[in-house]
């Protein structure tokens, strides 16, 4: 029985690791910290894997652990973040200069948001969760999700060069800002 649980856990980790690390990266803004955060969340999930499997969605359960671990990081001690004006260069498969610049600006602006607003924006628009799913993941009310999303989007739109891109993106779709779920940091 224990071997079967371990096998299911390993299958889950192999299938969902990149997605969980991407979500953690969007929450933390740092690739190494994102991997550490994901490992911490998965270690907690492993300890209660039977309970995780009984949940309606094991991924949502682990995502909630991930967000909680990120929040705990700020509660225990304030970790100084060294924010930079730009994200390091990444090789593009195609000539997507404008999209890459917009993505860099979005990630930098996202990193500048307060932790709660960043979590709401990431879960609501990048992960494409509903307001109630986001509220459930964060352990807050739907009203809090709405107000934090509005404040976070307003700050992102006020970012020079990013506001126009967000307006173009929201004109195309009313559910997600630029880059949401389409090739950000995966």
Q: TL;DR?
A:
With 186 residues, this protein is mainly alpha-helical. The chain is 70% helix and 0% strand.
Task: Give the arrangement of secondary structure elements.
Elements: H1 2-28, H2 31-47, H3 49-54, H4 58-76, H5 97-112, H6 115-126, H7 131-138, H8 142-157, H9 163-172
Helix pairs in contact: 1-2, 1-4, 1-6, 2-4, 6-7, 6-8, 7-8
How would you describe this protein?
This protein has 186 residues and is mainly alpha-helical.
- The tally of strands reads 0
Sheet with the most strands? none
Question: What percent of residues are in strands?
Answer: under 5%
Q: Round the Cα radius of gyration to an integer and report it.
A: 17 Å
Indicate the mean pLDDT: 80
Cα distance, first to last residue? Answer: 34 Å
Name the descriptors:
186 residues, mainly alpha, 70% helix, globular, disordered C terminus
